[in-house]
Write a structure and sequence with these properties.
The chain is mainly β. The protein contains 1 helix and 13 strands. Strand 3 and strand 4 form a beta hairpin. The radius of gyration is 25 Å and the shape is globular.
């Protein structure tokens, strides 16, 4: 049998502990989910169906997207009325609050020009069932004020349900904004997992994350 001195055995044990420390590194926490901010002025024209771009110096990029006002009535999804479709990237399992910077138009006929319906792909309810899917009868409602002008409007559930949106997994999703009344417009969409989760944006323009 080979006998080692106490100093040599201590050095061997020290080396073993050093190897263990390298073999089992501590995992770093996941970075917070970023804010999702979309400017209507940056959307391609093909994203608009029966919407059109309007000039407005108050909007980011100097433009908003809106629907002509004829005073007519519009139906909610799954009816295929004027809409805007866009894609954004989200984090799965994180609650988001949806906000729209709405331009309430002048009322005419039956239209108050102050409503947009919102649908998103990949969203699930508390039981894990798909909800708010584009083309379905499930949607959020952004109901603006009666007075014409700009306003940040939350996307809410009918009958006062939970307005937060949760996605099944990370990745790209489709957002569909459908006009609830003719003459309504918007220049920004925000899906907020943190900064505006519990409060409405205070500034007329929300800066995009770096």
């Amino acid at each position: 049998m080979v006998h080692h001195s106490p100093a040599r055995r201590a050095a061997a044990l020290s080396g073993a502990f050093a190897i263990s420390a390298i073999a089992f590194p501590i995992a770093s926490p996941q970075t917070p989910a970023p804010e999702v901010v979309v400017y209507a002025s940056e959307l391609p024209k093909r994203a608009l169906s029966e919407f059109e771009f309007w000039d407005d110096a108050m909007s980011p990029g100097g433009k908003l997207a809106g629907t002509p006002q004829t005073g007519g009535d519009l139906d909610p999804p799954p009816e295929d009325d004027p809409h805007v479709t866009l894609k954004v990237t989200v984090r799965g399992g994180v609650p988001y609050r949806c906000w729209i910077h709405m331009k309430v138009g002048a009322p005419k006929g039956v239209s108050k020009a102050n409503r947009i319906w919102v649908q998103v792909s990949g969203a699930v309810d508390a039981s894990g069932k798909e909800t708010l899917t584009p083309g379905s009868g499930s949607y959020l409602t952004a109901q603006g004020p009666a007075r014409p002008g700009w306003s940040w409007v939350g996307c809410d559930v009918a009958a006062g349900g939970d307005p937060l949106i949760r996605f099944r997994s990370d990745g790209e999703i489709t957002v569909r904004l459908q006009a609830g009344m003719e003459g309504v417009g918007f220049d920004q969409l925000v899906l907020s997992p943190a900064r505006y989760l519990q409060q409405v944006p205070a500034d007329p323009v929300v800066a995009k994350p770096n």
